[in-house]
Design brief:
Order of helices and strands: EHEHHEEHEHEHEHHEHEEHEHHH
Number of domains: 1
Bound molecules: pseudouridine-5'-monophosphate, manganese (II) ion
Number of strands: 11
Strand content: 5-15%
CATH architecture: 3-Layer(aba) Sandwich
């Protein structure tokens, strides 16, 4: 991509040049997924976690029409504090560039920009997917289609539990996105350790994940992602009874208030934070921290091996 549309921070450019480990981080979780002012602390903390894991963090966002891969602290602050920042999926990147708009990038936009920059490992909280009531709304996150066409490893705690999880797993299968549980044989449930759904493959070491990535390249099939589904530890999960009760209320409130489209996910996540007295936020953060730490380990194995 021409330099004016995609800008790598000097640190990220150096790391990629030297084949050092890099972990991409998304910005929608910061701008739309977490309450202020905690979100800025978290954005900084996640970058520190990547560094502590021996990799370079590359938080991705669009500022004044330019996609930035690797943000300095002022940019991170803008992402966390600007209430007018838009939520940009992959398809929003061209008009954002044309109009000079800014926005936080979702999994779809972040995965695309990371891969474009040459970053192979990406950490987030939970993927978007097929929403409940999809048969009427046709609401399926653009994350899925993008991941079916992008060779990137996404470390996540499964898909957000506000979604129709079995339907999302079906779609991931149809789209040829490889899904593996990390040290688990059930698909994680985002706020919950397990969604109760089985997962076909279990990988147990970062080196094994890197080996799967190398196999993707050796096979050289259609580009698709590797989803590493890493559960939140049981002792840090949201109480399942509380989760089910408040999620039921959240879904009912979304329906009553006719919340649709891009607003749906932020509305439900925010409802859960308030309805659980902040407990869902702690479970969400525990999941993200675990994913970021694991992503750094995977990035190190990936960078160390043959390519
Ligand atoms: N993970 C989190 N919190 C979030 C998200 C992921 O822990 O807010 C964001 C991601 O950016 C993901 C988006 O791409 O939610 C999905 O939104 P939608 O369902 O509108 O595609
Ligand atoms: Mn949607």
């Amino acid at each position: 991509m021409p330099e004016p549309l995609l800008r790598l921070s000097p640190e990220v450019a150096d790391a990629l040049e030297g084949r050092s480990p890099v972990v991409a981080l998304e910005s929608t979780i910061i701008s739309h997924g977490l309450p202020r002012p905690r979100n800025l602390e978290v954005a900084r903390e996640l970058e520190e976690l990547v560094r502590a894991g021996g990799a370079v963090p590359a938080t991705i966002a669009v500022l004044d029409g330019v996609a930035h891969v690797g943000l300095d602290d002022a940019a991170l602050e803008r992402v966390a504090c600007d209430p007018d920042l838009r939520k940009l999926g992959y398809r929003d990147l061209p008009p954002a560039a044309a109009t000079g708009a800014g926005g936080a990038t979702t999994v779809s936009a972040t995965a695309f920009l990371a891969a474009r920059a040459g970053i192979r490992v990406f950490a987030t909280g939970g993927l978007g997917g097929v929403h409940r009531g999809w048969a009427d709304s046709w609401d399926e996150s653009a994350d899925l289609a993008l991941l079916s066409r992008t060779r990137i490893t996404v470390v996540c705690a499964g898909v957000k539990s506000i979604l129709d999880v079995p339907a999302t797993l079906q779609r991931l299968e149809t789209l040829n996105v490889t899904v593996a549980g990390y040290r688990t044989s059930t698909f994680p449930g985002f706020y919950l350790h397990s969604s109760g759904e089985p997962v076909d493959w279990t990988l147990t070491e970062p080196e094994q994940v890197a080996a799967a990535m190398r196999a993707q390249d050796a096979l050289d099939g259609p580009a698709a992602a590797l989803v590493v589904a890493n559960p939140v530890p049981v002792e840090r999960q949201l109480d399942p009874g509380l989760h089910d009760r408040v999620l039921g209320e959240a879904l009912a409130a979304a329906e009553r208030q006719a919340v649709t489209g891009q607003a749906t996910t932020p509305f439900l996540l925010d409802y859960l934070v308030r309805g659980t007295g902040g407990a869902s936020l702690e479970a969400n953060l525990a999941a993200v921290r675990g994913n970021v730490a694991l992503a750094a380990e995977i990035a190190r194995c990936w960078a160390a091996g043959p390519r």
